[in-house]
Amino acid sequence: MNNLYQRDCLRLLDFSSLDLKNIITLAQKLKKDKKNNQEIPLLTRKKIALIFEKESTRTRCSFEVAAFDQGAQVTYLGPGSTHLGTKESIEDTAKILGRLYDGIQYRGHDHTTIEILAKYSKAPVWNGLTEKFHPTQLLADLLTIKESFPKKKFHHIKCAFVGDAHNNMGNSLLEAASLVGLDLRLVAPKECWPEKNLFILCQKEARKKKGNIICTEKIEEGVKNVDFIYTDVWVSMGERQEIWDKRIKLLRSYQVNHSMLDMTNNAQVKVLHCLPALHDQNTNMGKSILQKYNFKNGMEITNDVFQKHQEIIFEQAENRLHTIKSILVSSLLKEINL
Ligand code: CP
Ligand code: NVA
């Protein structure tokens, strides 16, 4: 039997290193089959509920397109459109959705909500982002890293995550590095370092796999000789408006720009971003925030760096589809014959 059958995906540490390797390998196969018009729909008659308490472009569309490609059907339950958390408890919602659907995706605020959903649902539950973790994003990131260096082991690949390292992306990167042994540097002011216990646990596990994880405030030290610089927004969905002033003050010097790329000492350095990015003023939010805080050229990443590296950044975004499809197939099929 497929080892991932009926398993939840609430955080990456729900998986072993081998599970993760299998998910990525299956994603590569599914990506290739789709590109060659040879995809076989394996999930016909499966039904998937998509609960979104926060907005989303990539995650929602990837779940939907992955389901459509595989012959499954989805119900989108947007913010405020169910009784969840208002008139009906998470427990009761989990019980009914688990009877109607074969799987449930949840994006929301508190991580304990998804833990309760998973506890009471008969069907597997997948985390499409909580304030603590964003595991399906990391699956796409690992696939993108692998595609850039197909022959290299993860412990020979250096990645610096620069910016708000105590958000869901920082935590999930830590967990990913602990499972695959990536050489990960979290480059951020101390106030934005992840929770100590998680850091120590992940560092210990990463070392067993010949990898390493460090936290540093020093940009030059953190990005030196890296293969990848990865960043994310400085203020995440659901954070209080009042946080902007403080966060920007802390992170202003951690912007990914050309002078930071020069510090890597690697002319081939690649740039990742989970998106959406505040890289220009072409959105209402970009315009008001960049003007208010006097950023001439992007916030966490400058527009010139973003444009120059957009090919890999959008490949990373497309990889959300292939990796989410891999998770759906893995957790909904007892046997995978591909
Ligand atoms: N990266 C990511 O999760 O994007 P969305 O918020 O658009 O889903
Ligand atoms: N840290 C970001 C990730 C977005 C994909 C957020 O939670 O808003």
UniProtKB/TrEMBL annotation:
<dbReference type="GO" id="GO:0019240">
    <property type="term" value="P:citrulline biosynthetic process"/>
</dbReference>
<feature type="binding site">
    <location>
        <begin position="236"/>
        <end position="237"/>
    </location>
    <ligand>
        <name>L-ornithine</name>
    </ligand>
</feature>
<comment type="function">
    <text>Reversibly catalyzes the transfer of the carbamoyl group from carbamoyl phosphate (CP) to the N(epsilon) atom of ornithine (ORN) to produce L-citrulline.</text>
</comment>
<dbReference type="GO" id="GO:0042450">
    <property type="term" value="P:L-arginine biosynthetic process via ornithine"/>
</dbReference>
<feature type="binding site">
    <location>
        <position position="232"/>
    </location>
    <ligand>
        <name>L-ornithine</name>
    </ligand>
</feature>
<feature type="binding site">
    <location>
        <position position="168"/>
    </location>
    <ligand>
        <name>L-ornithine</name>
    </ligand>
</feature>
<keyword id="KW-0808">Transferase</keyword>
<dbReference type="InterPro" id="IPR024904">
    <property type="entry name" value="OTCase_ArgI"/>
</dbReference>
<dbReference type="InterPro" id="IPR006131">
    <property type="entry name" value="Asp_carbamoyltransf_Asp/Orn-bd"/>
</dbReference>
<feature type="binding site">
    <location>
        <begin position="56"/>
        <end position="59"/>
    </location>
    <ligand>
        <name>carbamoyl phosphate</name>
    </ligand>
</feature>
<dbReference type="GO" id="GO:0004585">
    <property type="term" value="F:ornithine carbamoyltransferase activity"/>
</dbReference>
<dbReference type="GO" id="GO:0005737">
    <property type="term" value="C:cytoplasm"/>
</dbReference>
<dbReference type="InterPro" id="IPR006130">
    <property type="entry name" value="Asp/Orn_carbamoylTrfase"/>
</dbReference>
<dbReference type="InterPro" id="IPR006132">
    <property type="entry name" value="Asp/Orn_carbamoyltranf_P-bd"/>
</dbReference>
<comment type="similarity">
    <text>Belongs to the aspartate/ornithine carbamoyltransferase superfamily. OTCase family.</text>
</comment>
<protein>
    <recommendedName>
        <fullName>Ornithine carbamoyltransferase</fullName>
        <ecNumber>2.1.3.3</ecNumber>
    </recommendedName>
</protein>
<dbReference type="Pfam" id="PF02729">
    <property type="entry name" value="OTCace_N"/>
</dbReference>
<dbReference type="Pfam" id="PF00185">
    <property type="entry name" value="OTCace"/>
</dbReference>
<dbReference type="InterPro" id="IPR002292">
    <property type="entry name" value="Orn/put_carbamltrans"/>
</dbReference>
<feature type="domain" description="Aspartate/ornithine carbamoyltransferase carbamoyl-P binding">
    <location>
        <begin position="7"/>
        <end position="147"/>
    </location>
</feature>
<dbReference type="GO" id="GO:0016597">
    <property type="term" value="F:amino acid binding"/>
</dbReference>
<feature type="binding site">
    <location>
        <position position="320"/>
    </location>
    <ligand>
        <name>carbamoyl phosphate</name>
    </ligand>
</feature>
<feature type="binding site">
    <location>
        <begin position="134"/>
        <end position="137"/>
    </location>
    <ligand>
        <name>carbamoyl phosphate</name>
    </ligand>
</feature>
<feature type="binding site">
    <location>
        <position position="107"/>
    </location>
    <ligand>
        <name>carbamoyl phosphate</name>
    </ligand>
</feature>
<feature type="binding site">
    <location>
        <begin position="274"/>
        <end position="275"/>
    </location>
    <ligand>
        <name>carbamoyl phosphate</name>
    </ligand>
</feature>
<feature type="domain" description="Aspartate/ornithine carbamoyltransferase Asp/Orn-binding">
    <location>
        <begin position="156"/>
        <end position="330"/>
    </location>
</feature>
<keyword id="KW-0963">Cytoplasm</keyword>
<dbReference type="InterPro" id="IPR036901">
    <property type="entry name" value="Asp/Orn_carbamoylTrfase_sf"/>
</dbReference>
